[in-house]
Amino acid sequence: MYTPEMTGLAVLFAAVAVAVFAATGLLLRQLRRRAIFNHPNERSSHSLPTPHGGGLAVVPMVIIAWIGIGVMGDAAPAVFVVVALALALAVVFWIDDLRGLPVALRLAAQAAAIATALAAAPVDRAYVSAVLPPAVDLFIAGVLWLWFVNLFNFMDGIDGLAGSETASIGIGVAAVVMIAGGAGDLPALGIALAAAALGFLAWNWQPAKVFLGDVGSVPLGFVTGWLLLELAARGQAVAALILPLYYLADATLTLARRAARGERVWQAHREHFYQRAVRRGLGHAAVVRHVLAVNVLLVGLASVAAAGRPWVALAGAVVAVGTLLFLLGRSGSGAAE
Fold first, then answer.
1. I need a labelling partner for 313 at 20 to 30 A (CA). Which of 21, 55, 60, 255 fits?
2. Domain residues for 46?
3. Distances in Å between the alpha carbon of 67 and those of 30, 72, 115?
4. Does the global pTM surpass 0.85?
C-alpha cells in the first residue's frame, strides 16, 4: 500500500541522487585539473589512468542528508556521532589516497572510529545475541564492523561494484524495517545512502570516469556497517546478514584462501571471485550485473526474513551466493567488455 512516507522517501531519493551526480561531475573536473589519478599496475582491474577521489562528492552528501534526517527524526544522537566519525575517516583516508598511510595506522583509525561510535551511541538491545554478556556482545559487534569496513574497501576493485552493493544494502535496510513494522529513521537513512550510491554509479559504471578512492569506500563501509548493526539490534540480525552476504562471502573466503597459503592478506591483489571473473574474460559490467541480480534476490530474501521466516530466507541466500561464487569462479568464456 502506498503511503505518505513513501512519497517522502521518493523525494529524498531523487534529491540526494541528483545532488551526488552533480557534485561528482564538478569534482571530476578538479581531479583531472590537479592530475589526481589512479594509475594501473599489475594488481589493477583497469588499463587507463583514472581520476580517483569520488568519495569527496559522495560522503559529504550522505553526511548532509543524514544530518537532515537526524534533525527531523528521532535518531539524532546516534546519527550525529556516526556522521562526525565518517567525516573524520574521510579526512584520514583522503590523506591515504594522496600519500599512502601504514596499514597499522589505517586499522587504528577505523578501530578508533568504531569504538567511539559504539561507546557514544549505545543501543538498549544486543547486536549479536542477548545470551552473551553485554561487553562480549559489544566486542563482537565491533570486530564484525571493523571487518565489514575493510572488506567493503577490498571489494571496491572494479567499475560499478561498490555503488551497486551500497545501493542494494541501503534499499534492503529500508525494505526490511518497513516490512517488519519498525519505526524510526532507518528507512530514510538507507534510502539516502542508496541514492548517493546510484548518483555516483552514473559516473562509475564501466568504463568508469572516476573511482571512489579510500576517501569514499572506507567512510561508506563505516556508515553501511552501522546501518546493518542497527538493523540487527532491532531484531533483524538474519536480514542484516543476508543483505551483504555476497560481499561477506567473497572477501572472507578470499582472505582465508590467501592466509592458508601464507600470503600477506593486507596487500592488494586480484584474487577475489569478481576479479577472477574479469581476468577470465567476463567484463566489469557483466560481473556487476551478475552481482546485482543476486543482490535483488537477497533483498527479497531479507524481506522474507523480516516477515517471519528467517531461517528459510538464510538458506536461500546461502544457495544464491554460493551459486554466484561458483559461476564467477568458473567464468572464462567470451571477450572482456
1. 255
2. 4-238
3. 26, 9, 21
4. yes
